[in-house]
Amino acid sequence: MEKISTPLTEMLGMKYPMIIAPMFLVSNAEMLKAAIRSGITAAVPALNYRTDKDFREAIHEIRAEADGPMGVNLIVNKSNIRMMEQLKTCVELKVDFIITSLGSPRKVIELCKPAGIKVFCDVVDVHYAKICEDLGADAVIAVNKEAGGHAGPTPATELVPALVEACSIPVISAGGVGNGYQWKEKLELGAVGISMGSPFIATEEAGVSQDYKQACVDYGAEDIVMTTKLSGTPCTVINTPYMQDIGTQQNWLETFLNKNKKLKKFAKMLTAYKGMKMLEKAAMSATYKTVWCAGPSIEYVKSIRPIKAVVDEMVEQLTTSKVEVKE
C-alpha cells in the first residue's frame, strides 16, 4: 500500500501516521518490532522494565531486529523516582521519540533537543498544550474523552480542532479509534496522526495473558468504566465481575490521604504502586480478580490477531475512504 504522507510520517520516517500507544504492562519489544515492520511506530513505557539493564536490552533488541522509529513513554511527575535514569538512557541510546505523561516535559525537552530526539507531550487542553509548545515540544498528543487509561475530559471533535487552531506544532489524536474510518475522521479534524492502544491489547504480540486479550474481544464500549483505585487519577478499565465487587471509587482512607497536603505525595505514590501491582497480577495471570485497563475502542475488536493484520485492515479502510489530509 502507498505511503500516507503527513507531518508525523515525515518527522519519524515511517509509512503510516499511527503510533501504538504506550500501555503499562502491555507494550513490549515484540509489539514495537511488529509495529515498525507494519509501517507504523510504537512507544513502550520505561516503567515496563524493572531495571535499567532490562530497559537497555529491550532497546538494543528492537534496534537490531527492526529498521524504523521507536519511542519511549516517560512519566514525568514526582511519583516516578526513576525518571532521570530512564531519560538519560533514552538520550544515550538515541531513541527516536519520547512521549511525556502526567507532568512537566521541561527536563525531557532540555536533554532531548540537543540529541535530536523528538518529544511529544500528552495534553488534555489548550492551556497545557501551549505550555508544552513554549517549552519546545515537537508535537502534542490530544488525549480525548474516548482514550483508554487516563482519558481527558473533552471529545476529539472539540479538542483536536481547538489544539490545531491554538498551536503551531503538530497535533496527534489519542482516543476513539478502532478502525480505519475513525482514523480518517481524526486526520480530517486536523490531526497529523493517531496514537491508538486498546485494540492492540488483543494481538498476538501483546505481553499479557490470553484472558486479558480475550476480554478485549468479549467486552465492548458499554463495559468500560472509570476507576480511581489504580492511581488516584480516573482511569478506564473493563467492568469485570471483580471490578464490580471492589467498586470504582477510593475508600475513605485513600480519599483522606490524597486530600492531606503533607501526605498527598506519599499517598499518591502508594496508590499508584498498589494499582500497578493489581494491574500486573491481572495482566500476567489467569485469575477472576481482574483489573484490566482498556478504552471504549475495544468495541471494534473481534478476534486476537497479529499486529500487522490489524494495521493492514485499518490502512485499507483508511485509503478506500479517500481521506483528505489537512496540510
Automatic annotation (TrEMBL):
Signal peptide: none annotated. It holds the Pfam family NMO. Keywords: Dioxygenase, Flavoprotein, FMN, Monooxygenase, Oxidoreductase. InterPro entries: Aldolase_TIM, NMO. It comes from the Bacteria. One of its GO terms (molecular function) is dioxygenase activity. Belongs to the nitronate monooxygenase family. NMO class I subfamily. This is 2-nitropropane dioxygenase.
